[in-house]
Design goal:
- By secondary structure, the protein is of the alpha+beta class.
- The protein has one domain (about 10-165): Hotdog Thioesterase (Thiol Ester Dehydrase, Chain A, Roll).
- Helix content is about 30%, strand content about 35%.
- The protein contains 2 helices and 7 strands, in the order ββαβββββα.
- It is globular, with a radius of gyration of 17 Å.
- The model has no long low-confidence stretch (mean pLDDT about 95).
Amino acid sequence: MKTEAIAGRPVSASQAEMTEVVLPNDANPLGNILGGKVMHLVDVCGAIAAHRHASSYVVTASIDHMDFLHPIRVGELIVLKSSVNRVFHTSMEVGVKVFSENVLTGERQHTSSAYLTFVALDAQGRRKEIPPVLPQTGEERRRYEQAGQRHEYRMAERQRRRQAI
């Protein structure tokens, strides 16, 4: 039985942006947003892009790495931007960039980035095939190629960990 190819979607069709004000309840004693709060928002913003692209439920399978380059202070805005970098049959890599924004000057500063892997699920909770992503700009093609390299590394690491058990 021949299966029909799923039509691809451009990166721009699923990009997401979230903005929140950093409130005292979200901060540590130094007045900076908690790292866990940033990670939560990264996961949510990444999931929105993944949901949009897959047109289905998604679950977070992994997050590669996250550095906190600059603090985000109480009273500033936290701005998150996400997009699907590449699809791998039932999983996809989503990149999320985080910025602080001074509400008085509008100045933005890149504070962190992360690559997350999401898996698409159908209504019964089984893995579901995802439409390919169609990079259209030079930047999108660069991110697509680099996502492929990261995917190969992740798979090799997964195999290495299985063999170590």
